[in-house]
Amino acid sequence: MSIQTVEDTKVKAFPAKPAEVIAFTAKARRRIDLLAIAGRLATALVPPAVVILVLLVVWQVACSSPTASLPPPSQVWNEACDLIAHPFFDNGPQDIGLAWRVLISLQRVAIGFGIAAVVGVALGALVGQSVWAMRGLDPVFQILRTVPPLAWLPLSLAAFRDSNPSALFVIFITSIWPVIINTAVGVRNIPEDYRNVARILRLNQLEFFVKIMVPAAAPYIFTGLRIGIGLSWLAIVAAEMLTGGVGIGFFIWDAWNSSRLPDIIVALVYIGVTGFCLDRLVAAVGAFVTRGTTAK
Amino acid sequence: MTAYLKLDHIDKSFSRGGQVSEVLKDIRLTIDAGEFVSIIGHSGCGKSTLLNLIAGLTKVSKGAVLLENREVDSPGPERAVVFQNHSLLPWLTVYENINLAVSKVFGRTKSRAERHDWIMRNLDLVQMAHARDKRPAEISGGMKQRVGIARALAMEPKILLLDEPFGALDALTRAHLQDAVMDIHARLGSTMIMITHDVDEAVLLSDRIVMMTNGPAATIGEVLSVPLARPRRRIELASDRTFLRCREAVLKFLYERHRFVEAAE
Question: Does the complex come out with an ipTM higher than 0.95?
Fold first, then answer.
């Protein structure tokens, strides 16, 4: 019975709607559009803001007692204020702002991940293209990809006898696997028809790779690159902690050794935001490059 | 006079895991230059396999495909294929799709401007010049197939192979494209081989209709000549006695063969 009455009121409310639409003037509609944009922004921004605020309050309360082992947000703000407010200061070779440190780390990622992307796509194409290569290499890849980044570090230090190439190698070896595996899957999924087109045109290996294989597998390749860049950012911090230098990873290690916990917390935020931006960047490039390829 | 295209005692069998399945057996056919030949048969009779053999996409098990007395054993642009599902590359525009073929086939022999003119001429031929900058996803199924035909024609093939080119289209679009293909065939005088399972289409377009028996080990059951004058108009033909007789002959062949297989099973 109660359900019926609810439905009744709904039905009664309908005739009012068309009248509203007719009443819109151009000006009113534009204002509504602005309101709608503001509303959409609010729905996107308010929930995370509220959650962050709540987390900060909980953290503040939990760490406020004098026996707490970690600093509360207020203390982080007071002690690491200069780090937050001046990301680009430069007071000599070892005392630089966090933004500079992030940029130095990003440079390492760019080199290590860049090599991994090129080698990964090439190897992935080989694995996807040749049944024999797939049978031989796939098990090896599947085992090696589970090795954690830091486990490679001693070996790479021994091999390169220098910290900088070792760090690059760790980034490379960590981020290459998803690129290889996704590229291989993408290449294996190239429709037979595209291959037939290539065969009729007598495209050679290089032409096929550039003109058919890479664009056809691009959505898969970019999925791999996106996972890969996330992993490489994970690896850089770990690698720099051990190899030293002026990157953001080493900064954390250094702060720990001099018991500057608030600095570490600020650095964590920098790392998280940078990782997020990297992920979005690769996703955006992927969306731009692969536009039109997914639709048939 | 030797035949333009000769299918010489072709057998084709596939083996998978030790099991050999015979698809085609003792295919013998000669096709003259400029001829339009349809291959018709029930699904699974290996007519697409036959087309792939001529295209060189699949290798013959026995016998040979001879084009102008030279054996065909690999695919090439002189035997261009119009695929059933158009097979345009979705990341390229209409123009770029054809350019891929043209720059590969004529990259050395034609200048850039000549290649551009050639691409536009082929787009004009299928009335698709207006959509040159559209991607395949932005045009209709019939338009995609037109572009597919333009791409194949742009390779200037000795033989145009059409693999059920209108199978995925609605009846009206199909009729339009059939007219377009008839028109192109008349203007260019090209040799065309078309796979179809549409009896009306086969009779309307072909000089000869090759009827395949049912598989396994399918072969050519009958070859029917269609003695209709060109240009052919579908409305006039609808009541034409020769047209109806040809149509009946093909239907009878397919119907009787079909019944034969059902009885055997």
Answer: no
